[in-house]
Design goal:
This protein is α+β, with helices and mostly antiparallel strands. The chain has two domains: 2-31; 36-151, Immunoglobulin-like (Sandwich). The chain has helices at 2-30, 128-140, 148-164; strands at residues 34-35, 37-38, 46-53, 58-65, 76-83, 88-95, 104-111, 116-124, 145-146. A five-stranded antiparallel sheet has the order 1-3-4-7-9, with no helix packed on it. A four-stranded mixed sheet has the order 2-8-5-6. The chain starts with a helix and ends with a helix.
């Protein structure tokens, strides 16, 4: 019976340490983000909830809403990011798909670029020229814009590996 209690204490200690580590990591990472601002005219059907950047990366969360007068399905959201000195740092295109009329659809843009202070957002029609711009931007800025889910899973995996080893 004594070994089971000791084992249970160790299990609780490891779980508590894991929760403490995850909490400190979350607080530490999110404390470094500062708000960035829009330098252009934000389209009527786009709402930005959060736009933040650190010295090396950033994130923009928002919603887009189709209306009966302006259905956005098949169009693109163009996000441009700019440094503190006003220099252009990159462009990301998000295709708007599967939106229902008057129902907001969330989007997120993650980027890794230094000293970002501002951004612009536009809604563009889907044309052949836009398709070429999308492909060029994907090729040119593939290291600038990232998939945040992969990074989150990598951090969790690393922490678990460190705890278990």
């Amino acid at each position: 019976m004594g070994r089971i209690k000791t084992f249970a204490k160790y299990v609780l200690l490891v779980v508590g340490l894991y929760i403490f580590t995850m909490l400190c990591t979350y607080i530490g990472l999110n404390a470094t983000y500062k708000n960035i601002h829009d330098i252009g005219e934000l389209p009527n059907q786009v709402t930005i909830h959060l736009a933040q950047a650190t010295a090396v990366n950033g994130r923009i969360y928002g919603e887009v809403t189709s209306t009966e007068q302006n259905n956005l399905n098949g169009k693109y959201i163009k996000v441009g990011i700019y440094t503190k000195t006003g220099n252009f740092a990159g462009t990301k295109y998000l295709k708007i798909e599967d939106t229902k009329i008057n129902e907001p659809k969330k989007f997120a843009v993650y980027f890794t670029a230094e000293n970002i202070e501002s951004y612009t957002i536009e809604v563009l029609e889907a044309t052949e020229e836009t398709e070429k711009d999308v492909q060029n931007a994907m090729d040119l800025f593939q290291d600038t814009f990232t998939n945040e889910e992969l990074k989150t899973y990598a951090i969790v995996t690393l922490i678990l590996a460190l705890i278990l080893v």
